[in-house]
Amino acid sequence: MKKETKMQLSNRTVEILRNFATINPNIVIHPGNVIKTLSPAKNLVSVAEIEETFPQTFGIYDLSEFLSVLGLVDNTQITFSDSHCVVSDGSGLSSVKYFYSDPEMLSTPKKDIVMPECEVKFLLSNDTLAKVKRAASALGHEEISITPSNGSIEISVVNGADKTSNSYAITVDGDYPEGQEFNFILNVNNLKLIGESYEVSVSSRTISNFKSIDSKLEYFVALEKTSTYGA
């Protein structure tokens, strides 16, 4: 039997786990200070480096439930053992015994993603991200279009199936091959990003990377098949 290990989770780590729960209801934690998640459709992966170091591999079937359990006690401490963990308060008078799930039964990234060469790069500020999400909600559209615009990048919220529908557009600074035409499409439902500013890289090989400027957090988001690059 392994020696029991105790730890506390920072508010930041809990925030990341709450975000991960919107991407996939379950998670597999591995030893170390890097946590990852993969959406069920395998079109969104997120990787975060946290301040804590987990002692072992374990699976959580319902991450939202587990996070709710953490909120049942004050000054939460987690004690890890082979088959379960115990969530207790600082006094030790209140606790919850929480059993792990078999990691083999849960979906998790099997290997690290290596980004291909990216033709398009731009900065997506937290403010711009919030505006794009609000526009998508207001218009009821699910597509975000990334296109060139006189040396800059135009991010639009559109309905690709109806060219006459209302749309929203905002221009940001970016880099791309001069004279190159492209229309990269993202599904807004895949932009389950924590509200931070990101360096965004987009590849014509139908993948994008959102790397936080504010923390060690990044997302890999698949492009929609309707995306185009070149003539």
Q: Would you summarize the structure shown here?
A:
About 15% of the residues lie in helices and about 40% in strands.
Structure overview:
By secondary structure, the chain is of the alpha+beta class. Helix content is 15%, strand content 40%. It is built from 3 helices and 18 strands. The strands form 4 sheets. It has a 7-stranded antiparallel beta sheet. A 5-stranded antiparallel beta sheet has the order 12-11-10-14-18. The termini are far apart. The relative contact order is 0.16. The model has no long low-confidence stretch (mean pLDDT 93).
Q: Let me know the average pLDDT.
A: 93
What is the radius of gyration computed over CA atoms, rounded to a whole number of angstroms? 20 Å
**Spatial strand sequence of the major β-sheet:** 3-4-17-16-15-9-13
Question: What general outline do the C-alpha atoms trace?
Answer: elongated
Number of helices: 3
Unreliable stretches: none
Elements, N to C (H/E): EHEEEEHEEEEHEEEEEEEEE
Main β-sheet description: 7 strands, antiparallel
Give the strand tally: 18
Which tags fit this structure?
231 residues, five-stranded antiparallel sheet, 18 strands
